[in-house]
Design a protein that fits this description.
Number of strands of chain B: 10
CATH class of chain A: Alpha Beta
CATH superfamily of chain B: Aldolase class I
Order of helices and strands of chain B: EEEHEHEHEHEHEHEHEHH
Largest interface: A-B, 23 and 40 residues
Distance between the termini of chain A: 48 Å
CATH superfamily of chain A: Beta-grasp domain
Largest sheet of chain B: 3 strands, parallel
Number of helices of chain A: 1
Radius of gyration of chain B: 20 Å
CATH class of chain B: Alpha Beta
Order of helices and strands of chain A: EEHEEE
Strand order of the largest sheet of chain B: 3-10-9
Structural class of chain A: mainly beta
Shape of chain B: globular
Number of domains of chain A: 1
Structural class of chain B: alpha/beta
Helix content of chain B: 25-40%
Oligomer: heterodimer
Number of domains of chain B: 1
Helix content of chain A: 10-25%
Strand order of the largest sheet of chain A: 2-1-5-3-4
Distance between the termini of chain B: 59 Å
Shape of chain A: globular
CATH architecture of chain B: Alpha-Beta Barrel
Strand content of chain A: 35-45%
């Protein structure tokens, strides 16, 4: 079994070790300290559930922030 | 105290500020502080590892008394707007949502049908729904009946600086509404904001006019003063127009004719 999985992160392919969680992904992309929303396959993953949310091959993950807008 | 009431929220300022198009976050934060606003809009966007400074939640949350109103810009359907609203609420912790659905980037005119559908769903979910709409009195009334906290008709196209091009429709909407009417989009100068408030608007939402000004914090303060003056004038009762002159000085008992 391959030791990596490929997910779609904000619409782009992204590889990470098998059994990674949404929390691990946030650490990998260095978004700690930012307030982000996480969405896994169209379902919102709340901060308290990120460690338990495991990522599988082909999962679609959106990591979102607030930017300037009118 | 004359305050703006939206749901269970009370705001002493009737100026709502957008956070787009500023030259830097620090200028934007200075402008927000100078404006005295209690409600600012933000946009939900994908996190970009190359530009992490774009995250506005952290700096905005550090300003006392600021409530966030995320918008759904980028959505072109009701379903997209509803999903953006639900995600935004997780992030903002605020029930406010500016429903903004414009399918055509050329004119950015709001889609009334998708906006109505999204607003109806979100109002039922307990959001304080603030829909950005065309200046259409019928649509405004339907949105009020659907449970929106306010309606936000456009003065003119987003970012155009064409002012209150829809003034006569706005007057009808204001006259017919039982919820605050907030002019959103198109304002260029403080005098236009004052005029909107004199007409009876509950608030104005300004972004470009402040963000692209030579001195955004000073312009934010100017808008705040204009909004306050316009509101005060509205409450004081503005005189009626007359087609004829009406003398302010007595027309009798003047000196006799010169000899």
């Amino acid at each position: 079994m391959p030791q990596i999985v490929t997910i779609q992160l904000n619409g782009e392919p992204f590889t990470l070790p098998r059994c990674s969680s949404v929390s691990d992904l946030l650490t990998t992309i260095a978004s700690e300290g930012k307030t982000v929303a996480t969405v896994l396959n169209d379902q919102i993953v709340r901060p308290e559930n990120r460690s338990a949310a495991r990522l599988e091959e082909g999962d679609r993950v959106e990591i979102l922030i607030f930017a300037g807008g009118g | 105290m004359d305050s703006l009431h939206l749901g269970s929220y009370t705001f002493s300022s009737r100026l709502i500020l957008g956070t787009g198009k500023f030259s830097s976050s620090s200028v934007m934060l200075e402008a927000i502080k100078a404006s005295g606003t209690g409600l600012v809009t933000v946009a939900l966007r994908r996190f970009n590892r190359e530009q992490p400074e774009d995250d506005l939640f952290t700096p905005l949350s550090a300003i006392p008394g600021i409530t966030l109103m995320p918008n759904t810009s980028g959505a072109s359907t009701a379903a997209e707007a509803v999903q953006a609203a639900r995600i935004s609420r997780e992030l903002s912790g605020s029930p406010f949502i500016k429903v903004e659905i414009h399918p055509n980037p050329q004119h950015l005119m709001p889609d009334p049908i998708e906006t109505y559908e999204a607003s109806k769903i979100l109002a039922k979910e307990g959001f304080l729904v603030m829909p950005y709409i065309p200046a259409d009195p019928v649509l405004a009334k339907r949105l009020e009946e659907a449970g929106c906290a306010s309606v936000m008709p456009l003065g003119s196209a987003i970012g155009s600086g064409q002012g209150l091009a829809t003034a006569e429709m706005l007057r009808i909407i204001i006259r017919e509404s039982n919820i605050p009417v907030i002019v959103d989009a198109g304002l260029r100068s403080p005098s236009e904001a004052a005029l909107a408030m004199e007409m009876g608007c509950g608030a104005v939402l300004v972004n470009s006019a402040v963000a692209v000004a030579g001195d955004p914090p000073a312009m934010a303060e100017a808008f705040a003063e204009a909004v306050a003056a316009g509101r005060k004038a509205f409450r004081a009762g503005i005189m009626q127009k007359s087609g004829m002159a009406v003398a302010t000085s007595p027309l009798t008992a003047f000196l006799g004719p010169a000899s």
